[in-house]
Amino acid sequence: MTQTTTAPTSIITPTSTVLEARGISKIYPSGESTVVALRDVSVGFEAGRITAIVGPSGSGKSTLLNLLAGFDIPSSGAVLHLGNDLKSMPETKLASYRLAHFGFVFQNYNLVSILSAQENVELPLTLAGVPRAKRSQIATDLLKRVSLDKRMTHYPNQLSGGEQQRVAIARALATNPSVLFADEPTGNLDSKTGRGILELLTEPMAESSNRTVILITHDMDVASRAHRIVNIRDGSLEG
Ligand SMILES: Nc1ncnc2c1ncn2[C@@H]1O[C@H](COP(=O)(O)OP(=O)(O)O)[C@@H](O)[C@H]1O
Ligand SMILES: [Mg+2]
């Protein structure tokens, strides 16, 4: 009798909660006093869904994203990815966990200036120990997908802002992450270039229906492309 084995990821249906914040708060020291950047936030993110986090400057959007992505630990409460509490992982394990499961796109692109576009995209794969030929194949495919196949050997300072962000998206997707985080990904771009970036972040996501996308923005036009909008104000979720 032949029986197919079910890989753990295949049991994630489009309505499964992949990532969850349970009552998280974040308090930063500020001189003699403290700043409550997030206050008792609970929110879940489902597979195959794009969520926009919207709020004014200083409302706690980046703080929330940094906690969801395991870059920082909540002062109280917990963040769970597929039921795994990020807080319970030692820093080295958390770093490799992030590498395996999460992808990141930032406002300032954060490319490595001494690496070519191709090498930047390969970087997370190099860190994950993926063999050279496979890395090269993945990077080539992804750079083609973001229409940069003619720019693979260019360095970040030889690329426009929009092109750099496309490299950053290709890099973020290289490990085929379960969650893609983007913090103001179009914040430094003119509106036409921004729209192109947004299409890349949203449309390929619909194809790989299991990927969760969490997009921070203060642009309602950007937010309107998401399946869901979460509003944040003064560190608390609204509505
Ligand atoms: N590392 C930090 N130390 C102290 N205060 C911080 C720090 N990071 C953010 N804050 C404060 O927390 C609040 C939320 O900031 P942030 O999450 O960056 O907001 P947003 O991304 O929505 O603009 C702000 O009042 C900010 O000044
Ligand atoms: Mg921010």
3D structure, described in words:
With 239 residues, the chain is an alpha/beta fold. The chain has one domain: P-loop containing nucleotide triphosphate hydrolases (Rossmann fold). Helices cover 33% and strands 28% of the residues. It has helices at 61-68, 91-101, 117-127, 132-145, 161-173, 191-207, 220-223; strands at 17-30, 33-46, 50-54, 76-81, 84-85, 102-106, 179-183, 212-217, 228-233, 236-238. The strands form two sheets. The chain has a six-stranded mixed sheet with strand order 6-7-8-3-9-10, sandwiched between helices. The protein is globular, with a radius of gyration of 18 Å. Mean pLDDT is 89; it is low at 1-13. Bound molecules: adenosine-5'-diphosphate and magnesium ion. Adenosine-5'-diphosphate (ADP) binds next to strand 1, strand 2 and helix 1.
Query: What profile does the largest beta sheet have?
Result: 6 strands, mixed
Which kinds of small molecule does this entry bind, naming each only once? adenosine-5'-diphosphate, magnesium ion
Strand content: 25-35%
Tally of discrete structural domains: 1
Q: Give the CATH class.
A: Alpha Beta
Task: Name the CATH architecture.
Answer: 3-Layer(aba) Sandwich
CATH superfamily: P-loop containing nucleotide triphosphate hydrolases
SSE topology string? EEEHEEHEHHHEHEHEE
Strand order of the largest sheet: 6-7-8-3-9-10
Q: Counting H and I runs of at least 4 residues, what is the number of helices?
A: 7
- What does the radius of gyration come to? 18 Å
Global mean pLDDT: 89
Distance between the termini: 52 Å
Q: Looking at CATH, which topology would you report?
A: Rossmann fold
